[in-house]
Amino acid sequence: MLLLGVLLATPAAAGPPVGQLSVFGPDDLRTWNRPLWMEEMPSEPPLSLTEQELSGGAVGESEEEHEGEDDRQAPRPVLKPYAPGDPVSVGQPNQGYLVDGVAIEADAHTLVRPGRNFGTLETVNAIRGAIAAVNRKFPEGTHPLVVADLSREHGGRFPPHKSHQSGRDVDLGYYHTDGPPQRLARVWPQTLDAARTWALVEGLLADDQVQYMFIDYRLQAKLYAYARDEAGVSQEKLDAWFSYPQAQVKRGAPIRHLKGHADHIHVRFWSPQAVANFEGYVAHYGEAVLQPVPTHYTVRKGDSLNKIAKKFRLNIKQLKGWNRMRGNALKPGQKLVVGFRRPPLPRTR
Ligand SMILES: [Zn+2]
């Protein structure tokens, strides 16, 4: 019954919640969407590897547990002015959403998960381009690549992921030597198809689209050896791209180790056009597109602040602050703000 009350009190048009614990407003979004080269992107995965490995092997959930600074230089491409309908990456990958995202579709070379296959145009094109490069190089005997989660259609929270919110992340499978996997599946150095996986990684790295990618260290070792000995990659490039063999995470290197990445490669793209589109998007539709929408709960008999705070995983101070409450008294029927949702998106196409 309580749940029903919440659902009825929740605005229906607002899309997926951006997070009960987080409130952000136009200023936050402006800061986060500043052109990437003006400052380092906030809240990127750090150079430490202290997070605990999540058990259970669900798809791509562990990399997003950390916070910290990144050390890679963002590219500075020539950008086009925003036009309505262009994809917009709003906010940050771990606290943001996606406007007019593009779906990556299944084809003979690509397995996708419907509803989880939306990204910025740059993300989708980079993935498509890399898969096409693999299949051009190896026209025979290449199994379809599992392209697991990108973002949802409008982005936003996407459990169990922390990131994957703003169209700039994807979890890609590996190419396996022991048969085509239908879903993300654990690969070992012995069963990693190093030739095709290296072609994929090289394709991803080709146009400076990738901020970083997580690949299990033991698999990096196999790829490194392949790239050096079979693909003729120069030592200079190996040093620039791989963390292996110097460190699990080497400063400035896009290929990094993180626990939990033996069944998929997590790739974060820069996506500078979609990030920059934010300004034009706001200019075109007005500030209102950035105002978070409060979600409400109607107080019932027997409720207390403590009980409601627990229910929505808030602290009491936050709850009282949002509702401008001085004391603790509640009346049945009273409406409380218990969270914020992303603003409704304008119809852009
Ligand atoms: Zn991921």
Give me a quick take on this structure:
Helices cover 26% and strands 14% of the residues.
Strand order of the largest sheet: 7-10-8-9
Note the quaternary state here.
single chain
Radius of gyration: 22 Å
Strand content: 5-15%
Number of strands: 12
Assign an overall shape: elongated
Number of domains: 2
Mean pLDDT: 81
Kindly report the CATH topology of the largest domain: Muramoyl-pentapeptide Carboxypeptidase, domain 2
Bound molecules: zinc ion
Percent of residues in helices:
25-40%
Summing up helix and strand content along with how strands pair, one would put the structural category as alpha+beta
Just name the CATH architecture of the largest domain: 2-Layer Sandwich
Major pleated sheet: 4 strands, mixed
- What separation lies between the terminal Cα atoms? 38 Å
* DSSP summary: helix tally: 9
CATH level-1 class of the largest domain: Alpha Beta
Q: pLDDT under 50 segments (min length 5)?
A: 1-22, 35-69
Please trace the helix and strand order, writing H or E for each element: HHEEEEEHEEHEHHEEHEHHE
